[in-house]
Amino acid sequence: MAVKNSTKQTPKKKAQSNILEQSKITKASALSSLKTIVPQIFMDAQRPNEHLRSDSIRLRDVQLACCLNSPHLIGELEDIDYEGEALFIKEVFRNINKVLPIRKKEPHADRIVRFIAGFLQYNQQRDGIAKDEFVKLKRRNAKLEAKKKARAEAQRDIDDDPMSEVEEEEEDEEEENEDEDDSMDDDEDDEETISSRFVGSLLRHLLKGFTAKGIFVRTRCCQIIALSISSMGEIDEDLYQDLRTALFDRIIDKEASVRIQAATTLCRLQSADADVDPTDGKTILQKLMWCLQNDPSSEVRRVILFNIDPIAETLPYIVERARDVDAINRRVVYLKPLSDMPDFRMLSLEERNQILKWGLNDRNPLVKKAVSKMLSEKWISHANNNLIEFLERLDIMKPQVTEIAESVLDAFFTARMDIVNDISFDAEFWNNLTPESAFLAKVLIKFLQKDHTLDERLDAILPEVTRHAFNLKYYNDLYRSPTQSAQDYEFITTQMLETAMCLDYADEVGRRKMFELLRDILKSCELSEDHLSKIVRIFRLISLNERDFTRTIIEIIFDIQEQLNNPDELTETPAKKSRLEDSFASSLEISDPVTDMTDPTDIDSLVIRLRCLSISVQNSDVVLREEGLHCLGLCCTLDKTLAQHNVALFIQCIKNGHEGILKKAIVVLFDLMMTYGVQNLTVQIESSDEIREVFEFCIDHDTLEIQAITTEGLAKLMLAKRFQDDEILRLMILLYFFPVTDQDNNKVQQCLTYFFPAYSYSSADHQTSLSNVTILALEELCNTYSDLKSDEIMVNPMQISDMLADWTDPRKLAKLHLNDVTIDDEIKPNVHGRLAIEALNIIYNEPAGLKRKTMCHFILRLYLEKLDTSQLAEIKRLIHAINTERPIKEVLTRNAFTKLLNTIESNIEEYNQENGLDPNPETEKEETEQEEAAAKEDNTEKEDSEKDEEDIEKEADI
């Protein structure tokens, strides 16, 4: 849609023209049957299988008959009949108005809206044809005039150089004709037609509906403009500004359906209008980006994503929507704007990593599929369908990209198996590796190993072990040589080592060759930590067994110790030895645990390990001490006696060690408890409460990571029934609901969010343990909430009480959902009965305040049916006492307690009737006591009255 000036110029008319467009019906017939023809066309247009193009042609025919006095001729202005035009527009608007109040998604109304848009589009096409024919006619006439003048001038007598004068005159005539054509084109652009006049009238009519009270009227008006905006041609500048202002108001309409249509229209105008709205200083594009960020409706955000142009100004907002709460919107991000980019390098490195990481790890499989489609069809085309060039553009050598690049290629291979089947790695490929090609080979081999149906393809591309060992040595030597490409060769060596983990070492010759090569590499001092860890893992893979692996690593460590005598290597060797022991410990973690230590060779191996570890744990070097402690913990998992002997050491490290040692020690302690149980580990500890003190210390630690490690470890121990302590459980409840500040520990929150329901619903004993600390924790949380600071956020205690009541509900036990377990046999509601009694005592003792309200709310959430009669009687007594001595002021709560009391009384009565007991013995006792008290009061009053009478008689006698 273009905007034109409202100033009109008087166009020039041609005397001779041809008929361009003429109605098939007469003017009189059209005007007389206007109220019949137009409604019939609208009726036909709403039919399900109707061809809207033919209906648009019919309505155009009626428009020509009503609005023109004579046929439309090429090169001439339309002879408009303004009275007939007014009648036509009025009748069309009357039929349009019938559609406006109809609710959205009504098929018949939607077809009428599409018909209106189609009619405007057809009118625009007819105007375009008229302009083209006019231009052709002008050029044809100009050529004829030029030829006539040329012949006339050629016959004249020319004294001097006749040919040059003729050429000059012809050039002058051509320039005059061109100037005339340009002026006539300008006049034609400003020509007012019945189509442009209809568009202006329709816009003004629909703008009135933008402020209507009816939701559907506003929606339909915006919908018609949204569908027709591209077919409206040029409109007046003032009218365009009115439309723009109205759309800005509708983009913040309270109804999402209206905002959707307004956003669609503004998206059509985003590239054609950069003017600033004077009310807030924002352009159309900026307003759309604000809606994309803040609009609560997922459909509004989706419409903007579908229609927004992926340019530098919009890409940051588009990337944000990759984390949209709506899965469809996340999918649209990858299928539409990110796929329409001309080059994915328009995204910054950080943005690229974010969208790939979020998309490939999305919980919705359709989003993952959309990412794979974007990578395999769109982004690969940006790199000329070349995988190596694609990896170059991804900059895979950067550490933050390498992590996600493997997932990117996995998704690509999954979507394009045709490329997987075409890839081959020959000798020339392995001899001329680049960082990208080495990475591609590694990822493809790993991908093929995951699917056993592709074993044949894997055998075709997997290199021989011997050949791979030679290639690895070649690139490792290049990496160690002083060259400018050392970083590239380091990356290639890393990929070669990872590829070596995928090889088949059944070939003894290749296995020995790889073994010797890795042994030589380990003995060298110039070795990165990344390479070291991978080499140790390959050693574990090619070793005959764990004993052989352990012996080999220890021999290498001894060889490094011997190198300490060499002063040139003195600065390098200790650090390398520490890294080697770290890698050795990591390999032990992934190896099979050795539980049988009866074999003398195993005991000797363990003794050798401990000799190395005792030196490491006592070393002054922080890193070496941490890794030595880690290795000692791994060895303790292999022998129970060793674990019992060293548990005091781990506890001492937790209490007195620095942060790094503390983290290692607490992890080791949890692993040992999970392996042997708490009771077996505390045999040699002086006090059994020492373990609890350690956990309390770690839960209350200032470091968030230590809190998270402790919480996760305790959750695992309690779920496995390896450790149980009510006080620790209370601290975990307090930690979960404690006020949140800027430094919120998300790891703790996520862990406990899963732990408490799983722990409570898994066992009745767990519910009992939780109920032992429920009231204490709830009281403390109420006090904390009362003292809350302005910068702290905390869950309302009433909501906390809801969760605690739900976790201790005996009906929620997981085993009750089994088919062979009956609810009546398994439910033991004594837990809620005890909690109700404790809460009622607090209500009785608390005169008012948050704690009293919370406890009242808590009691009403408890399951108090099928309790013991003693508990029911006690609850009844406490409620009577509260109602009598300290009644509840809130009407709703008081009524709820009255209803609860009636339920309890009916349960007691029902129980007594079933068991043949006296009905309400407690009530009879209370009534007897009340009668005795009343009798005593009567006797006292009688005695007082007799004394008063005696006194009166004495006074009278006196």
From TrEMBL:
GO BP annotation list: cell division; mitotic chromosome condensation
Residue ranges annotated for the Nuclear condensin complex subunit 3 C-terminal domain, each copy included: 616-864
InterPro entries tied to this protein: ARM-like (IPR011989), ARM-type_fold (IPR016024), CND3 (IPR027165), Cnd3_C (IPR025977), TPR_TTI1_C (IPR057567)
Protein location: Chromosome
Acidic residues bias spans: 158-191, 946-958
Keyword hit for Transmembrane: no
Major localization listed first in the record, in broad terms: nucleus
Chain spans, region Disordered: 148-191, 910-958
Alphabetic keyword roster: Cell cycle, Cell division, Chromosome, DNA condensation, Mitosis
Ranges in coiled-coil conformation: none
Every TTI1 C-terminal TPR domain range: 144-270
Basic and acidic residues: bias regions: 148-157, 933-945
One term under GO cellular component: condensed chromosome
Membership in a protein family: Belongs to the CND3 (condensin subunit 3) family.
Protein name, per record: Condensin complex subunit 3
Species in which this protein is naturally found: Thamnidium elegans
